[in-house]
Amino acid sequence: xxxxxxxxxxxxxxxxxxxxxxxxxxxxxxxxxxxxxxxxxxxxxxxxxxxxxxxxxxxxxxxxxxxxxxxxxxxxxxxxxxxxxxxxxxxxxxxxxxxxxxxxxxxxxxxxxxxxxxxxxxxxxxxxxxxxxxxxxxxxxxxxxxxxxxxxxxxxxxxxxxxxxxxxxxxxxxxxxxxxxxxxxxxxxxxxxxxxxxxxxxxxxxxxxxxxxxxxxxxxxxxxxxxxxxxxxxxxxxxxxxxxxxxxxxxxxxxxxxxxxxxxxxxxxxxxxxxxxxxxxxxxxxxxxxxxxxxxxxxxxxxxxxxxxxxxxxxxxxxxxxxxxxxxxxxxxxxxxxxxxxxxxxxxxxxxxxxxxxxxxxxxxxxxxxxxxxxxxxxxxxxxxxxxxxxxxxxxxxxxxxxxxxxxx
Length: 409
Ligand SMILES: Cc1cc2nc3c(=O)[nH]c(=O)nc-3n(C[C@H](O)[C@H](O)[C@H](O)COP(=O)(O)OP(=O)(O)OC[C@H]3O[C@@H](n4cnc5c(N)ncnc54)[C@H](O)[C@@H]3O)c2cc1C
Description:
With about 400 residues, this protein is of the alpha+beta class. It has helices at about 10-25, 50-60, 60-65, 105-115, 170-175, 235-240, 245-255, 310-330, 335-360, 365-375, 380-390, 390-395, 400-405, and strands at about 1-10, 30, 45, 70, 75-80, 85-90, 100, 120-125, 130-135, 140-145, 150-165, 185-195, 205, 215-220, 225-235, 265, 270-275, 285, 290.
């Protein structure tokens, strides 16, 4: 069977790429997904402002608002010595949003996938596990895999194949660019809890002493339900032999700041873990007949762990460049590599700053000092709030001058 484009994986990256290619650029698309939607994806469920403009371009921002996700207006940070800081999201730039959502991926991803499925040029096959790529010389021209419902092997052909199969996906591996670099990936686990006390409409990031250089999070889903988890750089976790599940339960049971809030809370799901490939090491993500988007391209923010925004952002760019390849009638690396060049030009700056922030965040003394200063001073808090909201201003956070000025603030 022949298509213009085959997209492998129906997460935010894959569903967005497929929807834009078919809806905006009128391409005949096949979207393959190994699970059946709605499906769960281990995640913190925090959806930042970056996804909003892509949702608007897809025409489904209102649909997302209609499912009533929790709207977050800030971030609550705590330092290893237990000082708590409440920072509102603040943006002077009218094009940026000063709020985010927290929404279970079971619901959010299903909305994106069903939207893709409703577009007439898209064929979707769920419970289809793609397992290998078909090459014609150096050019990727198709996909092989198994329909898990009928147990039948099938082959599909297209001009361009999009790898959107996530952190441990096979596409990047088959192309020789996959594999998780332990210094540039995180392992994280999460569970849902009912009955967590004192939550505000803000995401909470706690730099708990026992877990540095990782962090513990509480992201509220409703007034009482929360997505709770911990994450750590893979290399550090292995070096220190940290058992993340145990670390999470230990914080919930014993941490002076956290434990009282979980006294009457109950875990309402399994605890699940997964890998986060960080954008401090973007992969080669375009070549002859293929592009990679989202986690498949390793685009997660190295400081915050946020990957949904960049998955959707890269999907939008991929759709635009793939359309250009159709206009040129050329699906070779020489045309598709514009995707990788533009992606690097647009994202490298912020990913680099986030990587530096990730390194700074491993310094307990510095964290205690900065959070302490900001907790005591409205001015410092205001400055931090503005800096976190804007990539250019965020650069100030990795400038030693900022810390020198802070000495006198
Ligand atoms: C514990 C944890 C917490 C996180 N918290 C946040 C957060 O709060 N906010 C945030 O923005 N990001 C967070 N992330 C990162 C975020 O989950 C990812 O960046 C995001 O899911 C990337 O989207 P994607 O579409 O690239 O991949 P995915 O969402 O992983 O989608 C890939 C899809 O491909 C399918 N697939 C895989 N293999 C095949 C195959 N062989 N054939 C067919 N289909 C296949 C999968 O079933 C899946 O549906 C977190 C990650 C983890 C692990």
